[in-house]
Specification:
The protein is α+β, with helices and mostly antiparallel strands. The protein has 15 helices and 20 strands. It has two domains: 369 residues, Creatine Kinase, Chain A, domain 2 (2-Layer Sandwich); 76 residues, no CATH class. The protein starts with 6 loop residues before the first strand and ends with a helix.
Length: 494
């Protein structure tokens, strides 16, 4: 039986400062992250000791040096938040890594909470800039200069599952799932074949099938083997192929359907050969096919459209659901996935309330019709960017949301609560509550550990190698009995 679902996302935002001729992205990111004042003292380190980005899931270690910032740089670039998330500077982008969650609905809540955190800090950072300068953030995936930044998904998996089998079944799925979770893009990039509009912002940037890199020669399947959990039991599938979605519905399906497919792979429930002849070529072909009619070549000599391949995965999922007791959220994911696949088969533009790329395409085409513009017009490219603007009063997605033109999955009240509250059913609860209750005594944090500095005693690290331990149910009584970190450590040992 597949292990329980644990997942999360890491969202890199595009950043620019208008009216600043000396704009520097790295210093602007540092200003942005430090403008978020949930922890005024800012003394909690991110614990890099537990990280190993050079381990490859295919069973080897790649050459290279692990970069570890010095003490001051660590403090300046990292914030661990009360909701269990990490908010930090990654190269030249601000990044929000949401806390671990157990289902797609909570994933939507906490990814959307990340948008709120980014906007709060953007406003605070802008107030610190010279008069006339405005910091802008965009939840998108490219800067139109050939640079792409990511939306990375993470899924806990059973280490006993063959990585070869994971790759075999995921490649066709990842190539074709963009039909419901692509964010939409005007034009092409990275020397890609020219087009007016495509489904995915990221598709042009994938150049190989399987590899460890995330910034050059990007692979459809990333092989990073950094579980942030018990290495003997788990792997963390690090997915870099997806777009940064604004639509709650697209986020819900992106993560919910993927988590279900991974459970099916673990349980041996994928029993059809959908291997593509050339996945790297196919991912770009699908992205350039908003009409859903292009035939992809399969290894076994047959041809299928992207919708037909998703239909085959859906049929296997329905058979799996009939034999297994799926939780309510996963059942809802399957129902909505089926609805979307049927809509894409008949009339893709009918899904303008649900799917990002459809909503964006409809919005832009309506504007083009009113203004008599073509796809090359600068105003059209600006609309593409404004769809992802983090400002609720300026972003075009948020405008559609205010007008009731998009389908919601969660409520604003749930999102706002998640800005400062961790999920209750993963170890993120213990992490967040320790930060809230003992901020002056937390020394360092990582996904699978938390370290306490108590008086003159040596630093004490508490390991959290099981993502489903440290939940509210497991630790609330312990925390209530521990007024200080010293008492917590004593009570944990008793």
């Amino acid at each position: 039986m597949a292990i329980p679902t644990v997942m999360g996302t890491e969202i890199e935002f595009g950043i620019i400062v208008k009216n600043d001729p000396d704009f520097d992205p790295i210093s602007s990111c540092v200003l942005l992250v430090n403008a978020y004042q949930e922890d005024p003292d800012g003394r909690i380190l991110w614990d890099y000791d537990q990280e190993n980005p050079l381990a490859d899931a295919r069973g080897f270690q790649v050459d290279g040096e692990k970069y570890t910032p010095n003490h001051q740089e660590n403090l300046a670039r990292n914030k661990t938040l009360l909701n269990g998330a990490r908010y930090y500077v990654d190269h030249a982008h601000p990044e929000y890594s949401c806390p671990e969650v157990t289902n797609a609905r909570d994933l939507v809540i906490h990814e959307k909470a990340g948008e709120r955190v980014a906007e709060i800090s953007r406003r605070e950072a802008t107030a610190l800039l010279p008069d006339g300068a405005i910091m802008l953030l965009h939840k998108n995936n490219s800067d139109r200069k050939g640079n792409s930044y990511g939306c990375h998904e993470n899924y806990l998996m059973d280490r006993r599952t063959s990585f070869k089998r994971i790759v075999e079944h995921l490649l066709p799925f990842f190539v074709t799932r963009q039909i419901f979770c692509g964010a939409g893009k005007v034009g092409s990039e990275n020397r890609g074949q020219p087009c007016d509009f495509q489904l995915s912002q990221r598709a042009d940037f994938f150049e190989t099938e399987v590899a460890l890199d995330t910034m050059v020669k990007r692979p459809i399947i990333n092989t990073r083997d950094e579980p942030h959990a018990d290495r003997d039991r788990y792997r963390r599938l690090h997915v870099i192929v997806g777009d940064s979605n604004m639509s709650e519905y697209s986020i819900y399906l992106r993560n919910g359907v993927t988590a279900l497919i991974l459970a099916m792979i673990e349980d041996g429930a994928i029993d059809r050969d959908l291997t593509l002849r050339d996945p790297v070529r196919a991912i770009k072909e699908v992205s350039r096919d908003p009409g859903m009619g292009h035939l992809l070549s399969l290894d076994r000599g047959k041809k299928r459209t992207a919708v037909e391949i998703q239909q085959e995965y859906l049929e296997m999922a329905l058979a799996y659901a009939a034999k297994n007791d799926l939780d309510a959220v996963t059942q809802d994911v399957v129902k909505r996935w089926q609805y979307v696949v049927e809509g894409l088969s008949s009339d893709p533009m009918s899904l303008h309330r649900e799917i990002d790329w459809v909503a964006k395409k409809r919005l832009i085409e309506n504007f083009m019709g009113r203004k008599q513009l073509n796809w090359d017009a600068p105003q059209v490219h600006m609309l593409d960017l404004q769809y992802h603007d983090s400002r609720p009063d300026k972003g075009l997605y948020y405008m559609l949301e205010r007008q009731g033109e998009v389908e919601r999955i969660v409520s604003d009240e749930e999102i706002n609560a998640a800005v400062h509250t961790p999920p209750s059913d993963t170890r993120a609860f213990f992490r967040g509550e320790c930060l809230r209750r003992y901020p002056g005594q937390v020394f360092g944090v990582n996904w699978d550990s938390i370290s306490f500095g108590v008086g003159d005693e040596p630093i004490k690290r508490v390991m959290m190698s099981e993502p489903l331990k440290g939940t509210r149910e497991h630790v609330l009584d312990l925390l209530e009995r521990s007024e200080t970190a010293s008492q917590l450590l004593v009570n944990m040992g008793s």
